[in-house]
Amino acid sequence: MAISTINPTTGRIEAEFAAHDAAETSRRITESAAAFAALGETCFDERAEWMRAAASLLEAESEATARLLTSEMGKPISQARAEVLKCARALRFYADNASTFLADEPVADPAIVAAQRAVVTYRPLGVILAVMPWNFPLWQAIRFAAPALMAGNTALLKHSSNVPQTALYLDALFERSGFPSGSFRVLFIGAGDVESVIRDARVKAVTLTGSEGAGRAVAAIAGSEVKKSVIELGGSDPFIVMPSADVEAASSIAVKARFSNTGQSCVCAKRFIVHTDIYDEFTRLFVEKTRALNVGDPMDESVEIGPLATEQTREDIAALVDDAIAKGASLLAGGHRPDLPGWFYEPTVLSDLTDDMRIVTEESFGPVASLYRVNDLDEAITIANQTEFGLSSSVWTNDAADEAAFISRIEAGAVFVNGMTVSFPELPFGGIKNSGYGRELGRHGIREFTNVKTVWKG
User: How do the residues of the chain divide into helix, strand and coil, expressed in percent and rounded to 5?
Assistant: First the structure.
């Protein structure tokens, strides 16, 4: 398999790496298992010191690291910097809070369970495999690694093959910060080799962020081995705008919510569901602001839309747009490959969508927005829930009854009111339906890969 940095702005190969064979893969698993034994001799305070040191390294190296992210997957440089600093924040968050999140929980009145003492404890599982995507190449890995390491687990990362230098940076980061050697190790393996790693007795659990197909495969393997898995898959998030909303503000945030990271995010808003009373106004503003986005070299500070990360990603998004237009969708903006080297695609807005169009049911992983006109709240919720995904949602209303209805009835892992979906270290992140199961981040995320152990003394 090819493990290489192909700059999406130019299409040129910038670095290539050899895949790990079975012997090297096994050696790295052994190293991770040995590091788990070493971590077992440490306390939260020691791990927190190392985690804060990793955060300081990220902050000190933020510019070079951001440029690495941009060269490997094409995100605008300002967004790459923000990603690096967000990772440092997450490291500090878990350094500061892990001991509280995983503190023993004694039963207030142990006599209720016929004991002198009863307590719930949280213990690490061991070696955890993470299979991660390229779209947020640092953040996706850090939001797994920070809680896993602070809980006392060790980590193996099978990263996407197009971001190998980011993977190598992470491979070294935690060791440089003081964690025992092998606490975090990268595996340069192909998708076909993941199964053997999951089935290895030394590996105790697996987490994946990626496509629905990959998630189903990994979950099935983990299930057959009776191993814990956390699965975060795609999204087709609704962005609902009601008459009571601030339409100007909603349209501005809508553009950011759809086109940040060039639209390559599972949690980007993708379907814009707008009440008929303000549909025309919202559409005019949204289309105007979409057309004004600056497309170009992502190293340019003024650029807002970079290339797609891979040539296949661009072809996939173009095929969705072409299918919709062929079946009668209206093209309000974009819809073409600009005359630039690399894998660029114009920010695109479609309306007049029908159920036979692929974009209605499939995830659009790129800079394409779908507009829907609705007559009332019930119709908005019906369209919001008609997709097989359930990751997050954004609703815009200043009506308390509408807000309560959306929070109660939208089928998703999160509802953001009058704001775009953002992942925060402090809040759990994950979905339902075909968007996966389990949670990352927050108190819930660090507990996913622990043994919730009951201790009873009579």
Answer: 45, 20, 35
Both tokens of 280, joined, read: 């025309």
The set of residues, in sequence order, having a beta carbon less than 8 Å from that of 446 and lying 6+ positions away, is 94, 98, 101, 102, 147, 148, 150, 151
Q: Which residues contact 453 (CB under 8 A, 6 or more apart)?
A: 120, 121, 122, 123
How far is the C-alpha of 393 from the C-alpha of 385, rounded, in Å?
10
Domains delineated in the chain: 3-233+435-457 (3.40.605.10), 237-425 (3.40.309.10)
Per annotation, catalytic residue among 72, 266, 268, 403? 266
Active site residue 43: no
Q: What is the largest CA-CA distance in the chain?
A: 76
E strand or H helix at 400: helix 400-409
Q: Tell me the C-alpha to C-alpha distance, in Å, between residue 364 and each of 68, 235, 287, 319.
A: 26, 9, 18, 10
Three-state SS letters, 252-265: HHHHHHHHHHHHCC
CA distance 63 to 85: 10
* Tally of CB atoms within 10 A around 404: 11
CA atoms within 13 A on the CB side of 310: 13
Give the Cβ contact number of residue 355 at 10 Å. Answer: 8
Question: pTM of this prediction?
Answer: 0.97
232 belongs to the catalytic site: yes
In whole angstroms, how far apart are CA 130 and each of 30, 140, 141, 160, 449?
Answer: 16, 10, 8, 11, 12
Q: What letters, b where the CB count within 10 A reaches 16 and e where it falls short, cover 264-278?
A: bbbbbbbbbbbbeeb
As a whole number of angstroms, the distance between CA 432 and CA 56 comes to: 35
Q: Write out pLDDT tens, residues 91-138.
A: 999 999 999 999 999 999 999 999 999 999 999 999 999 999 999 999
- pLDDT value of residue 2: 83
Catalytic residue selected from 31, 72, 225, 232 = 232
pLDDT at 1 over 90: no
Angle of helix 77-101 relative to helix 62-73, nearest 10 degrees, comes to: 110
CA pair distance 121, 144, nearest whole angstrom: 21
Tokens standing for residue 20: 């790990």
436: left (phi over 0), alpha (psi -120 to 50) or beta: left
